[in-house]
Amino acid sequence: MDIVIDANVIIADPWFRSQKMRVLLDFAEKRFSQVLLLEPVEMEVRAHFKREVTARANNIEAAIKNAERIGIRDTPQFEATEVFKRTLTAWEENLEKLVRSRRLFRIPLEPSVLREAMQRATERIPPCIESGKELRDTIIWLLFIETCKKRRHGEQYVFISQNTKDFAAPDKTSLRQELVGDLAQNGLTALYYPSPEAFNKEHAERFEHINLEWVQARLNLDEVVNSVRERLKEVRNSYFHISDSDYRNYYEPMFVEHIRHLNVEITEPVLIWDFDEHSIEVSIGCGINVEASVECIRVNAPRSTNFYSDYYEDIDDDFPYTRVLNCYAELGADISATVSDDSLEFTNIEAIYPI
To answer: Distance between CA atoms of 287 and 355, rounded to whole angstroms?
Structure first.
C-alpha cells in the first residue's frame, strides 16, 4: 500500500509527533507500506512552516520589547532571526531523519505534470474550479496519479487530504467522481480519507478486554479535566456561544477568563494501536460541556431608539468595546493514553473540536 498525505495534514503536525501521525507511520512500517512525500507537498509545508515560525518569533520578540518599555525586569534574551534559523534547522533535520529511516519517501515533481495541470486550469477540469484556481491541488493530484502508475501497478493506493471541498464527493469520505474517472482511465483505484484519524480508525487493532468500560474504570478523569481546562484557553473563540441573547448580535467571544463549569465524559470510539516498541496506546473520544466567563469584543452596535438618529447615543456606556459575558460550548476531544499491564495512563489531548 502506498499512502500519499496532502500538505494540510502535515501542516497540522509538522514535526510528525502526534499520536495520529505516529500511528500512520507505524502502520506503514509494519505492513511494508510506504508514506510518500510529494515534492509540491514538501514545498508548501516548508513555506508555511517558515511563515508560521517567523510570525510567532516576531510576536514574542515584540512582546518582550513592549514589556521592557514599561520597566519589567529579567526579561529573557530573544532574537527572532536566530530563533527562526535554529527552529528551521531542527525541523529540516527531523524531516531528513524520517526520510533516512525510510518512514517517508520523497517523490520528485515531473515536468509533464506541470503541463497537464496548466491545461486543466484553462479548461476548469477538477480539482481546478470554475475560477481557474486550485492549480496547486491539481499538481498534487496529477503527481499522485503518475506516482501510482510508476510504482507497483495493481497495488492499493491511499490519498489523505483534509481538503474535502476539492477532492471529496458530497459524502466527504470518498473521492469526487471526476477524480475516480482519472484513476479509472489509468487502470488505478485509490482509497480517500479526509484525515489520518479516518485512516487509523479502519486499521486500529482489536483487544477484546480494552473497551469503553475498561477505559472508564482506569482513566484518571481529573488529569483529563485539568488538561482540558488549560487547552480551553487556547481554543478558537468561535467554539463559544454567548448565553445572553441580548448581546449575541453585538459581541463575539475572544478570551476565556474564568471557567465556571467543566464536564468531561468519556465516549466512544476507543481505538487501540500496538507499537513495535511494545507499548500499547489508546485513542479515546470525549464529550465536553463548558460554561465560562469570556471577554467579548463588540462587533456591531444597536440602532438608536431616537427617531431622528441612526446612532446609539450612549454606545460606550451601554455597549462598551469589550465586555465579559457568560458563554457556553459543547465540544468533542480526542485524547491519548498508554496501557501498562492493567493500568491506563493519560498522556495528551490530541484535538479539541466543536460538535
So the answer is: 9
Task: At 303, list the grid cell.
Answer: 440602532
Provide CB contacts within 8 A for 230, sequence distance 6+.
Answer: none
Report the amino acid identity of residue 95.
L
**Cα dihedral across residues 123, 124, 127, 132: positive or negative:** positive
CA gap 182, 141 in Å, rounded:
10
Record the pTM: 0.71
Task: Please say whether the beta carbons of 212 and 271 come within 8 A.
Answer: no
- 153-211 confidence digits (pLDDT tens): 557 899 999 999 989 999 999 999 999 999 999 888 899 999 998 898 887 766 667 78
For residues 319 and 298, what is the distance between their CA atoms, to the nearest angstrom? Answer: 7
DSSP 8-state code for residue 11: H
Query: How many residues in total does the chain contain?
Result: 355
Select from 53, 17, 35, 94 the least CA-distant residue to 350. 17
Q: Which of 191-200, 217-226, 232-241 has the lowest mean pLDDT?
A: 232-241
171: Cβ–Cβ under 8 A, 6 or more apart, which residues? Answer: none
pLDDT in tens, 306-324: 444 445 555 556 678 888 9
What span, in angstroms and rounded, lies between the C-alpha atoms of 88 and 312?
51
Grid cell listed for 245: 441573547
Helix (H, G, I), strand (E, B) or coil at 164: helix
How far apart are alpha carbons 29 and 256 in whole angstroms?
42
What cell does 134 get? 486550485
Q: Which helix (H) or strand (E) holds 129?
A: none
